[in-house]
Design a protein that fits this description.
Chain lengths: ~625, ~450
């Protein structure tokens, strides 16, 4: 194939899934001349698995993306069919929003955003080769021989990289949903010396809604109050579609046990590592054989389609067994299968080959993001895509790179886990992975990150100044509540009695009264009204910060300690072999991960506190040597 | 650079009339100020640097006087570590110095790692470059040793107990996490506040038990409770006197008991012994005679170690045999005294009666055999024949300070649960408790919570 020069860009993004679109939009918005290449233009921001966005931890990631100036939140706000706030009965740190998406509308909306974005060129092409000069990315070549040159390149190939679909004993080369896979690019990446691993994931069958007997299922409606991911959304979709809940039956389990020998999971045909948090139905039945039934959620894939996603029945059993399985589930006895479930294997990078900016250590100016880095989930992909796009853009524009810390955002936790610890299964964010989750809340994502989004150039001035006003109102109100005394007069006591609280013996600061379990902001405001009327979000913010002050302070103290360790930088050219006393295993890990700070080094498994002590001393020694020499 | 505050005993263990407990770090003065009262009631913050002060150490929890001390106050940077440093001079001897150390640990200091004072001195630019390698060697060497000790303890009773507690906490945590990460997952019981209160109460009580009854803690705080028994005139008081003369005893009145029961502490080759009912021995020569058979049995039961004294110059009597019966199954050493006189006792019979216990022959009158006896006590203790899983001093203090910390975090969790704080907030203190307990056994695998999550529950949406 003869090659031809097709153009020069600041940033090229390969792939336009959830990671690719955020990367491309971010780079372009920051002013970098950006190109995004996708195998199929009709599959931009496609959801190959469940039709939903958000949920615990993930929903907070979407809020963070929005605060940083990303797209996911705004797009799902416009295209969802249902929204629910989860964990409302628990503390504010774990509340999370989840939306059921209209898949097609979501794609269309995202595609339109890309098309309208200044500085952004969209093109359909299969990338086959990366061009590297002096260990630095120079550009890439597509299937038709087009050579694109760029300062930086972001690879977001999802499950396309040497993808293989498996159903029963059928196995064929394919991207998700029978898309054309990306094979030569995998070779090109391997040839550059990168370690790739084989991961596996799967999806359940889809059925036609007109053939479902909903009377045998339970309805799962959305919330009837307006909800949105984006801090900027002002129009809410109140016309929502419900999901439905049913269960597997004993017959289902019998069918699985009878047909296990046909499952590629158990025949040894699938070699890739699958995620534990999203097991196939055959896995659930085998591993938890004492459980009489498993939940099955029926989720509509959109408003203009009858297709329904059978959540909980993810499987790679042969299609005839899948049909039997569906028929054994109450409500699905006569359901018509529209697509079969399948497992997909794909190549992923060992993520410890990346810097915390998501730039590869081997090839300068080359970034990877999303499922290729060993994660799963649209939100995890989008969060990485955004950060890779930001850093690729900053590099191309010759600005200083940006890394979110574990105490800044779930996105920081996600990326730090990947590049520091690696992963041996597709990685999913869980709230328990965040040690400061009380600080990483749904409600305060803007307070945590909007400033950063503004500095980078993703958040426009108008939004920023509105944010500053909100921030000030919250801060002023906190000061006011902490300094205002409430007298134990009749009005006060009556109000306290009306909510079954114990009467005041003395005057009390408004903030201290608010800390009581039975009190909320509006009640306290009745006794001590603010001069400025606060919005619902602002009131919520004030209430959380007052009520959970003790716990928040505890977390902040821990963060202080972390920051000190993060400030202790490890020189990039450090020679671990020259340091006596560090255990051999720890040395190997340190050389592989090449941590940038003592904090990061201490998170590597296999590196113990004594190794860290020695490392600290070694580094200080170098500094002293420099000062005295 | 700013570090947390560390503390350790800076003088060699078990010797000397005076011991020094040193504190270094940004809150060294604040911690000392919490536990030190000078007669003038002046705060340490108001005192000049590099001054020495007389006063008492007080347990701030109950206002109880712990020790009479001299305290040196040295503000950074003109100190060994270049940080604020406090040195507390207290009475030598394991028991008192450990009390002082405990007090510092409970009030916010952390036990220093091996070589950590020197390390800080280096990091703060106090020591020159050539000494850096030596510091690193020190850290490595001591850590390896500490790890060996830790490994030895892994099989111990304490470790097993802690492992049980941690597993219970981990299951609780996993349940809370599942409730959060999979809110629609129907097959798992919601971790409610009453359930949380139950779990926390149980863990808190278990930690209390560990702190109170574990031989480790008890020995450290009180010494190895030791009773000297034997018929009249076999040489019990001579034994007592020679142990005391050799080992600088501290005579203490134990609060809350009658004056006639006096306990004396002696330090035998690093083993703290609390000699029980020494007054009884002195006055009446016979514990059984003085307090009655039943009560003496009880005293014996509570003892960790019994020294049974026999008379070499007489044949075994019925009383001797009864004493053997009374102490069956306990840790004891047989002392055949008065070897300066012609031997009449049936040694083979004594061997038979005592099974595999150590037998030491002495002539206390001629000061013969005391060394052998002390050796026997020390080896019994350090070889772990006495049921105590954790015998090294450092680990002991470390364990107690960690257990105390765990106790305070689980108490926080419990109080929060009783005040209707959401479960996922209480989780913060429960997780902390789990981590602290893990530091005792050296298990700090972060991934285990997530592993537990997937092992325990079948997860979907």
């Amino acid at each position: 194939m003869p090659k031809f020069e097709a153009g020069k860009f600041d940033v090229i993004v390969v792939g336009a899934g959830h990671a690719g679109v955020e990367a491309a939009l971010a780079a372009a918005k920051m002013g970098a001349k950006t190109l995004v290449l996708t195998i199929n233009l009709d599959m931009i921001a496609f959801m190959p698995c469940n039709p939903s966005i958000g949920g615990p931890a993930k929903g907070i990631v979407v809020r963070e993306i929005d605060a940083l100036g990303g797209a996911m939140g705004k797009v799902i706000d416009k295209t969802h069919i249902q929204m629910r706030m989860l964990n409302t009965g628990k503390g504010p740190a774990v509340r999370a929003l989840r939306a059921q998406a209209d898949k097609v509308l979501y794609q269309n909306e995202m595609k339109r955003l890309l098309e309208e974005q200044e500085n952004l060129t969209i093109h359909q092409a299969v990338v086959e080769e990366l061009l590297v000069e002096d260990d630095k990315i120079a550009g890439l070549v597509t299937q038709v021989g087009a050579v694109y040159r760029a300062e930086t390149v972001v690879i977001t190939t999802g499950t396309f990289l040497r993808g293989e679909i498996i159903i029963g004993d059928l196995k064929y080369s394919s991207g998700p949903n029978n898309q054309q896979p990306s094979i030569k690019l995998a070779d090109s990446i391997r040839d550059l010396g990168f370690d790739l691993v084989r991961f596996k994931t799967g999806t359940p069958p889809r059925v036609n809604s007109k053939t479902i007997d909903y009377s045998k299922t339970e309805i799962q409606p959305g919330d009837d109050v307006p909800r949105a991911f984006s801090f900027e959304t002002t129009e809410f979709i109140m016309d929502q579609l419900p999901c439905w809940l049913t269960y597997t039956s004993e017959v289902t389990h019998q069918i699985i046990n009878d047909n296990l020998h046909l499952s590629p999971m158990y025949s040894g045909m699938i070699k890739g590592t699958g995620p534990r948090y999203c097991p196939s139905i055959e896995d659930k039945v085998v591993r938890f054989n004492d459980k009489p039934r498993h939940q099955i959620f029926l989720e509509p894939e959109g408003r203009n389609t009858r297709e329904v996603y059978v959540q909980g029945l993810s499987t790679s059993l042969p299609e005839h067994v899948q049909r039997q399985l569906l028929a054994s589930v109450p409500g699905l006895e006569n359901a018509e299968m529209m697509r079969a479930g399948y497992a997909i294997e794909y190549d992923a990078m060992v993520p410890t080959q990346l810097w915390p900016t998501l730039e590869t250590k081997k090839v300068k100016n080359l970034y990877t993001a999303g499922q290729i880095n060993g994660t799963s989930g649209y939100e995890e992909a989008a969060g990485q895509g955004l950060m890779a796009g930001i850093n690729a853009g900053l590099r191309a524009l010759k600005k200083e790179e940006k890394v979110l810390s574990r105490s800044d955002a779930y996105i920081g936790v996600l990326i730090d886990d990947l590049v520091t610890k690696g992963t041996n299964e597709p990685y999913r964010l869980l709230t328990s992975r965040a040690e400061y989750r009380l600080l990483l809340r749904h409600d305060n994502a803007d307070l945590r990150l909007l400033e950063i989004g503004y500095e980078i150039g993703l958040v426009p001035e108008s939004r920023y100044s509105k944010f500053l006003e909100k921030k000030k109102r919250v801060e002023d109100e906190l000061v006011r509540l902490r300094s205002t005394m409430i007298k134990p007069n009749e009005v006060t006591q009556d109000l306290i009695k009306s909510v079954a609280g114990s009467e005041l013996k003395d005057g009390i600061r408004a903030a201290d009264l608010l800390k009581r379990t039975e009190m909320n902001y509006d009640l306290v405001a009745q006794l001590s009204p603010s001069e400025v009327e606060l919005s619902i979000e602002e009131k919520e913010q004030v209430e959380i910060q007052v009520k959970y002050e003790g716990y928040i302070d505890k977390s902040l103290q821990q963060v202080e300690k972390l920051k000190k360790m993060e400030d202790k930088k490890i020189p990039e050219n450090i020679d671990y072999n020259a340091i006596n006393g560090i255990a051999t295993e720890a040395k190997q890990k340190l050389m592989q991960v090449r941590p940038l700070s003592i904090a990061q080094a201490s998170r590597i498994s296999g590196v113990n506190p004594a190794d860290i002590s020695i490392l600290l001393i070694y580094i200080e020694q170098g500094k002293i040597a420099k000062i005295s020499g | 650079m700013e570090f947390d505050t560390i503390t350790a005993i800076s003088t060699p263990m078990g010797e000397g009339a005076i011991a020094i407990v040193r504190l270094s770090g940004s809150s060294a003065i604040a911690i000392a100020d919490k536990i030190f009262r000078s007669p003038s009631e002046k705060s340490l913050f108001e005192q000049n640097s590099h001054t020495i002060h007389y006063g008492h150490l007080i347990d701030p929890k109950n206002g109880e006087v712990v020790e009479e001390v001299m305290l040196s106050l040295m503000k950074g940077p003109k100190t060994f570590t270049r940080e604020d440093v406090i040195e507390i001079n207290c009475h030598g001897g394991l028991v008192s110095v450990n009390r002082v150390l405990q007090l510092a640990l409970i009030n916010g200091a952390r036990l220093a790692e091996p070589g950590e004072f020197t390390k800080r001195a280096f990091l703060n630019g106090r020591i020159d470059l050539s000494q850096a390698e030596a510091v690193m060697d020190l850290i490595r060497a001591k850590t390896d040793k500490a790890m060996n000790v830790a490994l030895g303890q892994m099989e111990g009773r304490l470790s097993r107990l802690i492992a049980t507690l941690r597993q219970a906490l981990l299951e609780t945590l996993a349940q809370v996490e599942v409730n959060i990460d999979y809110p629609e997952y129907d097959d798992v019981e919601e971790m409610t506040l009453p359930l949380m209160i139950d779990k926390c109460t149980w863990v808190s009580e278990e930690i209390d038990k560990l702190l109170l009854t574990s031989s480790q803690g008890k020995i450290l705080r009180e010494g190895l409770s030791t009773a000297i028994i034997g018929r009249p005139n076999v040489g019990k008081s001579s034994l007592l006197n020679s142990l005391i003369q050799e080992n600088k005893a501290i005579v203490t009145d134990i609060a809350g008991t009658t004056r006639d029961i006096i306990e004396e502490y002696v330090n035998v080759r690093g083993v703290p012994l609390k000699l029980v009912d020494t007054a009884g021995i002195r006055e009446t020569e016979d514990i059984v005679e003085r307090i009655g058979v039943e009560k003496s049995r009880q005293v014996l039961k509570e003892a960790d170690l019994i020294l049974l004294v026999l008379n070499s110059a007489e044949k075994l009597t019925i009383e001797d045999r009864r004493l053997f019966e009374a102490i069956e199954g306990m840790d004891y050493i047989v002392i055949i005294n008065k070897t300066d006189l012609p031997t009449e006792i049936e040694i083979d019979e004594v061997r038979k009666l005592s099974g595999h216990k150590r037998i030491v022959t002495t002539s206390l009158l001629e000061e013969q055999g005391v060394n052998e006896l002390e050796e026997a006590i020390a080896s019994l203790f350090f070889e772990g024949a006495i049921e105590a899983t954790d015998l090294t001093y450092v680990s002991n203090a470390r364990h107690i300070s960690l257990l105390t910390l765990a106790k305070s975090t689980i108490t926080d969790a419990l109080e929060a649960a009783q005040n209707d704080v959401p479960v996922d907030m209480i989780q913060i203190d429960v997780t902390r408790t789990w981590e602290i307990l893990g530091e005792i056994t050296g298990d700090t695998v972060e991934e285990s919570l997530i592993d537990q999550l997937f092992a325990q529950f079948c997860l979907g949406k």
